[in-house]
Amino acid sequence: MSYTTSKNMLENAQKKNYAVCAFNAENLEMVQAIIWGADEMNAPVIIQTTPSTARYADFAYFYSIVRISAEHARIPVALHLDHGNGFDLVCNAIKSGYGSVMIDASQKSFEDNINITQKVVELAKAVNIPVEAELGQVGGKEDELESAGTAYTNPADAVEFAGRTGIDSLAVAIGTAHGLYKIQPELDLERLSEIKKALRDFNMPLVLHGATGLSDETVKECIKRGINKINFATELRQAYTNAVREKLNSDKNIIDVKIYGNYARERVKELVKEKIGLSGSVGRG
User: What is the DSSP string of 121-173?
Assistant: First the structure.
């Protein structure tokens, strides 16, 4: 296996009731850490970049890094645009080789969200690229998108949204938030079950954003109730940055970036393996 789209990954996860981990990467070392960790666990994996990450290094750079790294792995690897906030941005990601995209128009009205998502789906379907969208609003801040609160996903709206847009997967708002939690959130798990049941005729994989900081028990319960893709971003950034800081503080004479880069890469890899173990995707590659 090697570079692919996310479609088969999520369909398999839904059939067998587990989740595929999707990890946000910011540089070469994080891409390697994610793929190496997933490869050791024989688990499918999705690497994600946000719009600001793409501006930092361009879609083409990340596509090249992920594509080359995936060629040396035995597992399926997909590159996904996380929280794509405009039609042109999604187009650029697809043109650059991304195998999966998210259009996030959840800040818009219900009808505007549908209209924007329809345009993206029409484009993506023409080149067999799966599309994720969001309904309701996951709280916190992710890139330029920020929500002061959480507008929970309505199951009936989810049915209409899926039917009118033709999306492949849906990110739901059930009480999670992007970033670090100050207190443990209380998720509306019954709502998650209701959404999954309402969408049963669509065979719709559901996506959980804002998983950083959730308890293991909560994550497992979300998977049990229908989550098939789990996003991890903040924890990886935190692990990488803390490792670099730790290494530099341990030896003020270090100037070789490879020394602390390697140290941080290993720290992220161990975290990736831990999250994959939690997701139920071990051995699913």
Answer: HHHHHTTT--EEEEESB-BEEETTEEESS-BPPPHHHHHHHHHHH--SEEEE-
